[in-house]
Task: inverse folding
């Protein structure tokens, strides 16, 4: 039982390149989230999903797209990376009474 | 406009003493509050929570206090241990499944 896993752990992109971050959960939770963490800003919600096939915008959605084709997977895409998207990205799944469970994070640098 | 504020970026405490981490919020619709702990290179982990119908919740060495009139909550750790050194995030929910996080407080427990 791995909980929430994220792939990759680290990535360096050049401005304008695209990439997809993969999040997988084995807890059968309906709700999944993508957050970014920046110094002095805490964690800010990018997009979230309330179930398979559904997605919604969070606090800072611009420049990102997401898909939830399968319940256990939540993908975050950057179509044209910008230096402002340099951050640590966390995926999470909602465990209801137990709170939100986070993955280990992906550190992304955009040059 | 940060709805959840942790005004102390860092806190240093001697081992065995009490650590008090503070959090203020502005949204009166928040009715559920959580504390998360984060070690370097790991995702945040759920620590303790409190509903707005309570003013205190205790779990071992960790106690969270909620003052609704002041829109303030605090996390008390007694006694503090070196292993408690981490970043602590306060988070709030308005009954939906989205959490709003504070910027975090770095706690250092000195032995």
Result:
């Amino acid at each position: 039982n791995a909980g929430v896993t994220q792939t990759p752990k680290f990535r360096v992109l050049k401005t304008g390149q695209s990439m997809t971050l993969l999040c997988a959960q084995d807890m059968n939770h309906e709700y999944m989230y993508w957050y970014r963490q920046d110094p002095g800003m805490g964690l800010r919600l990018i997009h979230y999903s309330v179930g398979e096939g559904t997605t919604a915008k969070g606090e800072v959605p611009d420049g990102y797209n997401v898909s939830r084709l399968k319940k256990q997977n939540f993908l975050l895409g950057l179509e044209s990376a910008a230096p402002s998207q340099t951050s640590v990205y966390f995926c999470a799944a909602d465990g209801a009474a137990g709170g939100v469970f986070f993955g280990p994070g992906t550190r992304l640098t955009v040059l | 406009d940060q709805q959840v504020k942790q005004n102390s970026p860092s806190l240093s405490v001697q081992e065995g003493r009490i650590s008090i981490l503070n959090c203020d919020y502005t949204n009166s619709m928040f009715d559920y509050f959580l504390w998360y702990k984060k070690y370097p290179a790991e995702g945040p982990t759920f620590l303790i929570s409190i509903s707005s119908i309570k003013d205190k919740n205790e779990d071992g060495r960790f106690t969270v206090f909620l003052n609704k009139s002041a829109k303030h909550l605090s996390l008390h750790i007694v006694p503090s241990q070196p292993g408690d050194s981490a970043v602590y995030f306060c988070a709030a929910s308005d009954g939906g499944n989205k959490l709003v996080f504070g910027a975090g407080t770095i706690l250092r427990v000195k032995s």
User: Anything to note?
Assistant: Chain A touches chain B at residues 4, 31, 33, 35, 40-45, 48, 50, 58, 90, 92, 94, 98-105 (CB under 8 Å). Chain A has a mean pLDDT of 93.
